[in-house]
């Protein structure tokens, strides 16, 4: 089996799974309980928080545990809107955001908020000049993803941060779900990023785990109310085993990350060069994008047909986004890039991780060549 669908989810690392099982079996206490078992759980949570903070060059007080990227994005968008509504109701995002951000924005729009969607160019990159033009006195949030989940385009976060330094009251949220371990991400004290959201199952941690970075001093209304966990900002009994395992997975993914990224980029460029030689292939990703995502189309063949054809060969890829695959619609990113509908619906995505090899890529091209000839003969 060749697994090239890592942007949808990654396989949990064996050592991370062992940590999860060990904590699940041995540490049964609720962190909110006053007895020794509760204290043991609290200790593990704080160890995980400390390790994550150190790995990302932040402080423990800036790390909050969530259930993943969807919750984090919802919390960042709605929490900012609620917390800062007395200062304004204008929010800015892009036309290529994950549905967790876009649909949160649309829900707020129904409640009277004004939403601006920034366009992107033909490579899926937002214009800093366009952002600067749209900023207003009543703007309270700018939410822009670090790496696009469909084509891998990297957004100019540093340049955006420079613009936003003149707007200190505007929260800057970054969906970093596809960025961790793939591109440099500065969350140090001098960075303009106020909020960043992460999902554990994108870096070999258990599903249902995630965390948020919230810069010290920045206020965010809770999305989940209840028992007051996570300093009163995110209620709900903590997933101690999952969080502990996630902190270990993060340590593993950022260790030697430059070397891992280099190997993934080598595989991606090999695939791009080979695919570009086929007359009916359209490449949407660029070599300047994230090292792990490659989106392309075999014109005339719908994406889901390609996905199932590869599956029969033991190779797993996806259409442009796992979150919208079953709706069988073209990716929102490609639509925002003004890719014609008949080509966009043929798009598929190959997404890599640090365990994939060049030999797997070579096998992929071999099978693609056979499918290309087969589809050519049919049509």
TrEMBL record:
InterPro entries: Aminotrans_V_dom, Aminotrans_V_PyrdxlP_BS, Cysteine_dSase, PyrdxlP-dep_Trfase, PyrdxlP-dep_Trfase_major, PyrdxlP-dep_Trfase_small
Name of this chain's protein: Cysteine desulfurase
UniProt GO MF annotations: cysteine desulfurase activity; iron-sulfur cluster binding; metal ion binding
Organism of derivation: Carnobacterium divergens DSM 20623
Matching Gene3D superfamilies: 1.10.260.50, Aspartate Aminotransferase, domain 1 (3.90.1150.10), Type I PLP-dependent aspartate aminotransferase-like (Major domain) (3.40.640.10)
Signal sequence residues: none
Record domain Aminotransferase class V: where: 2-364
Stated family: Belongs to the class-V pyridoxal-phosphate-dependent aminotransferase family. NifS/IscS subfamily.
One Pfam entry name: Aminotran_5
Alphabetized SUPFAM superfamilies for the sequence: PLP-dependent transferases (SSF53383)
Coiled-coil spans in chain: none
Keyword list, A-Z: Iron, Iron-sulfur, Metal-binding, Pyridoxal phosphate
Cofactor: pyridoxal 5'-phosphate
